[in-house]
Design brief:
This protein is mainly α. The protein has helices spanning 6-33, 44-99, 105-146, 149-152, 158-162, 167-170.
Length: 171
C-alpha cells in the first residue's frame, strides 16, 4: 500500500499552483502584447504563416506605391500628349494661314520662325515618350517574370527561357 504524506500533498499542490501561475503569466503576456506566441520556437507553423503574411503585406504595400507612381507618370504623359495636340493644332493653323496666299514674305518668315520654335518644343517631348516606353517595359518584364499566363494573356517566363536581360533578371 502507498502512503500519502502531507509533504507529498504540499509538493503536488505547490507544483500545480506554479504550473497555473506560469500559464496565467503566459496568457497575461499574450493579452498585453497582442501576440499569440512570444517566441518563434513556441509554434513554428504560426511563425511561418506570420512571416509569410508580413511578406505579402510588404509586397502589397509596394504594389500600391508602384500603382501611385504609375498613375503619376500616366497623368504626366496625358498632360504632355494634350500639350502636343495643342501645339500640332497651332502648326495646322499656321500652315493654313501660310498657304492662304494673302501673306507677304515677312509674315511667312514669322510663321516659319514660330514653327521652328514649336518643333523645338516637340523635341522636348521625346524624353517623355522614352520614359513612358521604359515604364511599360518594366511592367511587361514584371508580368513576364511573375505573371500567370492566363491573366497576362501571353506566355510568361519567355524572356527568362530565352536568356534575355530584363530589369527583373538584373535585380
Amino acid at each position: 500500500m502507498f502512503r500519502v504524506s502531507n509533504i507529498m500533498r504540499t509538493g503536488s499542490f505547490t507544483s500545480k499552483i506554479l504550473s497555473l501561475e506560469s500559464k496565467m503569466y503566459k496568457t497575461n503576456n499574450q493579452i498585453t502584447s497582442g501576440k499569440e506566441i512570444m517566441y518563434g520556437s513556441e509554434n513554428p507553423y504560426i511563425t511561418y504563416n506570420s512571416i509569410k503574411m508580413n511578406n505579402s503585406l510588404k509586397m502589397i504595400s509596394q504594389y500600391k506605391k508602384n500603382i501611385t507612381t504609375a498613375k503619376g507618370h500616366l497623368e504626366y504623359a496625358e498632360g504632355a500628349l494634350r500639350s502636343i495636340t495643342d501645339v500640332l493644332k497651332r502648326v495646322r493653323e499656321l500652315a493654313v494661314m501660310a498657304a492662304n496666299g494673302t501673306l507677304n514674305a515677312e509674315d511667312r518668315q514669322k510663321i516659319a520662325a514660330e514653327i521652328k520654335d514649336i518643333l523645338k518644343k516637340i523635341k522636348q517631348f521625346e524624353t517623355i515618350g522614352s520614359e513612358i516606353c521604359l515604364m511599360f517595359q518594366i511592367v511587361d518584364d514584371f508580368i513576364d517574370h511573375r505573371g500567370d499566363s492566363k491573366k497576362a494573356g501571353k506566355k510568361t517566363k519567355k524572356d527568362y527561357k530565352l536568356g534575355k536581360a530584363t530589369l527583373i533578371s538584373l535585380l
